[in-house]
């Protein structure tokens, strides 16, 4: 439980957004976990006094919050940037209907792709859907602007996007907090003429939508600010760029008026015209795409104003905003000679990608799968393994190299459908339990319906592990039963730690697919190691031990199994790093010389915890 | 007010985010603004991670290239991977004597000596933070030992007091690791 006793707290930007929503009176909050958005819903769930849920995917999360907002509630939905693509369908229509209460959609974008497949700039969704986008620049402004987003939404009865980025959501800093308000739930509002989007209603809504859009254009003016330093130079800084601009101005000692843009969509036209009319040169600083820049150029053309204007010609649109980018832009704009002196990173460093955790059950799943492919007489280099989004995407790394594609949630089964159609070779779709429910279901129905031969291997670790072990529907819904309900005729469960029987089951499933030309589902079921550790006293775990007289230094355990807790000694024999080993025992069947065993006492219900 | 930029690098699971939290909280007790940009997501799975800590009158969270006042490696190799944040002129490099092997087959790792060789000509300090942590009774306190060492190097002078750190450290074993690290003689490599 979170108690909001002190007013100044040191928190993450995402926590600041959650606490801002509470201060605005949020009553219903939904989301699907995804970096860098996860802590928003996590914080609201911890607070415990409003309704908040992890939904099965972003579209359902969106619709749940929207359903509350059209009945008068103050609602929030949060997701990462690519998650909003999943919810794009209801997003576009929500702008037509508007809402009764307040509806804030948090899109956490990830420029530089710290943990994402692309760095799309979701401010475009605002232009596309005619939904205003509010953009904070630090944790404090994230808190205050969340409150403003609810106010604006409620005032104009329209959804509002709050767009943050990694360096807002995952920056920890001091935040002066506003106290929480009583949550505003709705009351049943039946208004089918507005909310049933048959063409007749939608056409009327379209006119209303544009009316609201005009009003929004006026309302946003007050959320932006011009800092007049009596200069000919104007810097227009959107969102996170504002903080960087302030620091660069202080550091380089240059003079400019600064226009802080908190609403990149729509831009505050009056304020911008006023600022530009007093300037001879303008620099637009924004992260990502030239969204403010396009709108300003549009505005200036309409007003017949010509002014020296710079933006993306001086600031790279690749990757996140940095002071270095601004130093470069300032050096051109102000004609400064800025020399950055820094050391070169040596070229010969060993790579260090993140890896599957010690005790991860699905390290074994990948090993079992690769052996099963050979046993089923398929050619490993001609077998397409269609991957998906989750920890197990790390199976792309050596030694597994067991992901030939991974593009979006649920893509494993969807892409496998096409792989078979193009090549005629049987693909293997590898998908996690949470992702299976997120958007694997409809792709699997497609495979059944079109009789597409494929093996679907569900790596069920009983959670959404990648983002911090949030609960997954697999705890309540049996994946095998669901697959059966979708018409899958071959369903098996395996325990990945039971290597011999898993290899046998997987190769039989592959043979069955080959012979029967339809999809089969195998569920590899074992709990995420981090989730197991949450339920035991960590100081008292069993440990793997290598009997050195039996170890031949064959390197299988550290080079082919690659558990981070097994390390090579100078004589190539293996030893266990006791700080990393959690005593799962997965390495025992891997050693051909039976040199590894478990020592120490297993905590209470240890074996049951792994197989819940 | 002066600003200090500290980049702390290492690998997932070493408590780097916690170290950032402790500096931020200690800064709060000393009424000094601290912004910490954290790496989440893939971080705890043993990959390379870092945090940017900016202390003082700052509005943006990332340290520019070459502008780290302190470049700290909780794992020694990761100092090299983040070297572009350092400059020969004004960066102090602090290295924990710990080299972790990446979880990939047949990767040749650099020895501590090879790492130090690549850093010749820079201001480098070595500390065995893992050993201090074990002696302090908490093997996970290597991150705090590094903070104690940074404190003796003067990284927080005029910005964050020792009392503030002790208040932010919370656990007895953390305070012990912090204080033990301060008793080590500062010796430039």
TrEMBL record, chain A:
<feature type="binding site">
    <location>
        <position position="551"/>
    </location>
    <ligand>
        <name>[4Fe-4S] cluster 1</name>
    </ligand>
</feature>
<protein>
    <recommendedName>
        <fullName>Indolepyruvate oxidoreductase subunit IorA</fullName>
        <ecNumber>1.2.7.8</ecNumber>
    </recommendedName>
</protein>
<comment type="subunit">
    <text>Heterodimer composed of an alpha and a beta subunit.</text>
</comment>
<dbReference type="GO" id="GO:0051539">
    <property type="term" value="F:4 iron, 4 sulfur cluster binding"/>
</dbReference>
<feature type="binding site">
    <location>
        <position position="554"/>
    </location>
    <ligand>
        <name>[4Fe-4S] cluster 1</name>
    </ligand>
</feature>
<dbReference type="GO" id="GO:0030976">
    <property type="term" value="F:thiamine pyrophosphate binding"/>
</dbReference>
<feature type="binding site">
    <location>
        <position position="563"/>
    </location>
    <ligand>
        <name>[4Fe-4S] cluster 2</name>
    </ligand>
</feature>
<keyword id="KW-0411">Iron-sulfur</keyword>
<feature type="domain" description="4Fe-4S ferredoxin-type">
    <location>
        <begin position="572"/>
        <end position="601"/>
    </location>
</feature>
<feature type="binding site">
    <location>
        <position position="591"/>
    </location>
    <ligand>
        <name>[4Fe-4S] cluster 1</name>
    </ligand>
</feature>
<feature type="domain" description="4Fe-4S ferredoxin-type">
    <location>
        <begin position="542"/>
        <end position="571"/>
    </location>
</feature>
<dbReference type="InterPro" id="IPR011766">
    <property type="entry name" value="TPP_enzyme_TPP-bd"/>
</dbReference>
<dbReference type="GO" id="GO:0043805">
    <property type="term" value="F:indolepyruvate ferredoxin oxidoreductase activity"/>
</dbReference>
<dbReference type="InterPro" id="IPR029061">
    <property type="entry name" value="THDP-binding"/>
</dbReference>
<dbReference type="InterPro" id="IPR017900">
    <property type="entry name" value="4Fe4S_Fe_S_CS"/>
</dbReference>
<keyword id="KW-0560">Oxidoreductase</keyword>
<dbReference type="Pfam" id="PF13237">
    <property type="entry name" value="Fer4_10"/>
</dbReference>
<comment type="subunit">
    <text>Heterodimer of the IorA and IorB subunits.</text>
</comment>
<dbReference type="GO" id="GO:0019164">
    <property type="term" value="F:pyruvate synthase activity"/>
</dbReference>
<keyword id="KW-0249">Electron transport</keyword>
<dbReference type="Pfam" id="PF02775">
    <property type="entry name" value="TPP_enzyme_C"/>
</dbReference>
<feature type="binding site">
    <location>
        <position position="557"/>
    </location>
    <ligand>
        <name>[4Fe-4S] cluster 1</name>
    </ligand>
</feature>
From TrEMBL, chain B:
<dbReference type="InterPro" id="IPR002869">
    <property type="entry name" value="Pyrv_flavodox_OxRed_cen"/>
</dbReference>
<protein>
    <submittedName>
        <fullName>Indolepyruvate oxidoreductase subunit beta</fullName>
    </submittedName>
</protein>
<dbReference type="Pfam" id="PF01558">
    <property type="entry name" value="POR"/>
</dbReference>
<dbReference type="InterPro" id="IPR019752">
    <property type="entry name" value="Pyrv/ketoisovalerate_OxRed_cat"/>
</dbReference>
<keyword id="KW-0560">Oxidoreductase</keyword>
<dbReference type="InterPro" id="IPR052198">
    <property type="entry name" value="IorB_Oxidoreductase"/>
</dbReference>
<feature type="domain" description="Pyruvate/ketoisovalerate oxidoreductase catalytic">
    <location>
        <begin position="12"/>
        <end position="179"/>
    </location>
</feature>
<dbReference type="GO" id="GO:0016903">
    <property type="term" value="F:oxidoreductase activity, acting on the aldehyde or oxo group of donors"/>
</dbReference>
């Amino acid at each position: 439980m979170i108690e909001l006793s002190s007013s100044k707290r040191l928190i993450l930007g995402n926590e600041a957004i959650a606490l801002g929503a509470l201060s605005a009176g949020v009553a219903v909050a939904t989301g699907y976990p995804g970096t860098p958005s996860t802590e928003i819903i996590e914080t609201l769930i911890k607070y415990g006094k409003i309704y908040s849920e992890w939904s099965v995917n972003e579209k359902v999360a969106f619709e749940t919050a929207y359903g509350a907002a059209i009945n008068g509630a103050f609602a929030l939905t949060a997701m990462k940037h690519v998650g909003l693509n999943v919810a794009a369908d209801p997003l576009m229509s929500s702008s037509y209907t508007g809402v009764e209460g307040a509806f804030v959609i948090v899109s956490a974008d990830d420029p530089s792709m710290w943990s994402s497949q692309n760095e799309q700039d979701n401010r475009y969704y605002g232009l596309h859907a005619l939904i205003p986008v509010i953009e904070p620049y630090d944790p404090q402004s994230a808190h205050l602007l969340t409150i403003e987003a609810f106010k604006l939404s409620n005032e104009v009865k329209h959804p509002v996007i709050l767009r943050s980025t990694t360096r807002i959501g995952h920056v920890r800093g001091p935040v002066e907090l506003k106290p929480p308000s009583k949550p505003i739930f709705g009351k049943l509002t039946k208004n089918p003429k507005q909310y049933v989007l048959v063409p007749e209603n939608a056409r009327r809504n379209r006119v209303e939508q544009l009316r609201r859009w005009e009003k929004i254009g006026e309302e946003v003016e007050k959320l932006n600010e011009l800092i007049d330093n009596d200069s000919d130079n104007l810097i227009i800084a959107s969102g996170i760029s504002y903080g960087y601009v302030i620091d660069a101005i202080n550091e380089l000692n240059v003079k400019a008026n600064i226009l802080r843009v908190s609403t990149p969509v729509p831009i505050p036209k009056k304020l911008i015209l006023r600022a530009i009319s007093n300037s001879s040169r303008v620099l637009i600083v924004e992260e990502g795409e030239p969204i403010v820049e396009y709108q300003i150029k549009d505005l200036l053309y309409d007003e017949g104003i010509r002014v020296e204007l710079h933006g993306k010609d001086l600031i790279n649109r690749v990757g996140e905003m940095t002071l270095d980018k601004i130093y470069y832009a300032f050096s051109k704009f102000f004609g400064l000679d800025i020399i950055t002196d820094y050391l070169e990173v040596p070229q010969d460093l060993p790579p260090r990608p993140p890896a599957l955790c010690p005790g991860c059950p699905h390290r074994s799943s990948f090993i079992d799968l690769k052996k099963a492919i050979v046993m089923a007489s398929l050619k490993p280099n001609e077998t397409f393994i269609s991957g998906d989004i989750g920890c197990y995407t790390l199976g792309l790394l050596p030694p597994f190299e067991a992901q030939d594609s991974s593009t979006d949630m649920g893509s494993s089964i969807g892409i496998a459908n096409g792989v078979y159609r193009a090549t005629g070779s049987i693909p293997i779709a590898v998908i996690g339990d949470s992702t299976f429910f997120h958007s694997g279901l409809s792709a699997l129905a497609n495979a059944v319906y079109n009789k597409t031969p494929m093996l679907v291997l569900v790596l069920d670790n009983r959670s959404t592990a990648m983002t911090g072990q949030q609960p997954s529907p697999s705890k309540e819904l049996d994946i095998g039963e669901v697959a059966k309900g979708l018409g899958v005729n071959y369903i098996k469960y395996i325990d990945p730690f039971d290597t011999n029987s898993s290899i046998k089951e997987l190769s039989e499933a592959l043979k069955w697919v080959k012979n029967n030309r339809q999809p089969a589902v195998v569920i590899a079921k074992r709990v995420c190691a981090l989730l197991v550790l949450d339920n035991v006293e960590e100081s008292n775990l069993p440990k793997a031990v290598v009997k050195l007289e039996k170890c031949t230094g064959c390197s299988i355990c550290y080079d082919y199994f690659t558990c981070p807790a097994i390390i090579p000694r100078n004589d190539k024999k293996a030893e266990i790093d006791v700080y990393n080993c959690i005593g799962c025992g997965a390495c025992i069947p891997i050693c051909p010389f039976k040199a590894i065993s478990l020592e120490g006492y297993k905590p209470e219900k240890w074996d049951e915890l792994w197989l819940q | 007010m002066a600003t200090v930029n500290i980049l702390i690098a290492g690998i997932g699971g070493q408590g780097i985010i916690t170290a950032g939290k402790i500096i931020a909280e200690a800064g709060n007790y000393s009424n000094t603004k601290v912004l910490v940009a954290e790496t989440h997501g893939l971080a705890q799975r043993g990959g390379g991670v870092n945090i940017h800590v900016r202390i003082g009158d700052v509005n943006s969270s990332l340290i520019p290239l070459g502008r780290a006042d302190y470049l700290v490696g909780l794992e020694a190799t990761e100092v090299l991977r983040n070297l572009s944040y350092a400059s020969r002129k004004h960066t102090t490099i602090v290295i924990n004597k710990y080299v972790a092997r990446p979880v990939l087959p047949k990767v040749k790792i650099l020895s501590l000596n090879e790492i130090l060789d690549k850093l010749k000509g820079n201001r480098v300090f070595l500390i065995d933070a893992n050993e201090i942590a074990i002696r302090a009774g908490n093997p996970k306190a290597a991150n705090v030992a590094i903070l104690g060492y940074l404190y003796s190097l003067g990284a927080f002078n005029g910005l964050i007091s020792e009392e503030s750190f002790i208040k932010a450290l919370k656990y007895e074993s953390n305070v012990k690791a912090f204080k033990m690290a301060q008793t080590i003689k500062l010796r430039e490599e």
